[in-house]
Amino acid sequence: MIYKTLMFRFYAGWHQWPLWVHVFSWGTLICLTVALVGITNVVGHNVWNGWRESSGLRHPTYTEQVFIENVIRTRANTWSNLAYILVGLYSLALGWHDLKQSPSNRSGYLIQTPALSLTFGVACCYLGIGSGLFHASLTRVGQQIDVAAMYTPLLTLCVVNIGREIPAAWHVRLRPFPIWILLIALVAAASWLLFVYKWSMSSLIVLSSLIAVIGVSLIADQFQTLRRLDLRWGAMSLAMLVAAVACRELDIAKRFSHPTAWIQGHAMWHVLTSLSLACIYCYYRSEINSSSKGISDGL
Question: For the chain, which domains are there?
Fold first, then answer.
């Protein structure tokens, strides 16, 4: 039932978006995939010698077999990160589309503030690249980037919630200063600090806290009278996240698949969490303001 609902919602959204959004997103993904396949075939051997190893190289946490002498040391867990990049490309395209349009005053905050869609797109691409680098290399720096990159899309969603509750612009010397600039700077600064101090904190606590903030905001939205959002997107995002956690835990327990299988539990974690991010992004795009007052502040 959840699968059918998810497919229906994406199908409906698919037809609402301009054709060029799909062409750009899938075309870029295909070109990137072909380029990466070509590069790995040309290189053909391990390029990670001399890099500091992560503990997962010699003592794998996940089920998938590690090919130490290959450019891509874990296949499924590496290539599955393209799902994050696809979500990022769609967000970039939709943000650009919003920027070039004149959104209705009833459009939600995310549509009226394309800069945050663009930021979310960059964040998802960053996550795909960072996680892909780690699973391809199983190096310590790759692990640091991987974990830090997980926070950035969630931080972006958190500042979307902040932006909806404060004025769109502050006036400095009688000139409006758009708040989205400060919000993006906040995301960048927090992402950098979480990268630098990655080894000093629990990623589980940080991730859980960010998800909890978004969850509380989602619940609070249901008591708002000035805006409406499609809660089904939020429910599907949660369902995808729960399924992702289940796949990941089964994979860690070595109960999901064979080590050489192309469908791995942690790879499914990547795919399902990317769908979860896509759903929650669509949730914020579904916002409709009941009041006629616009909130746009330029970009």
Answer: 2-289 (1.20.1070)
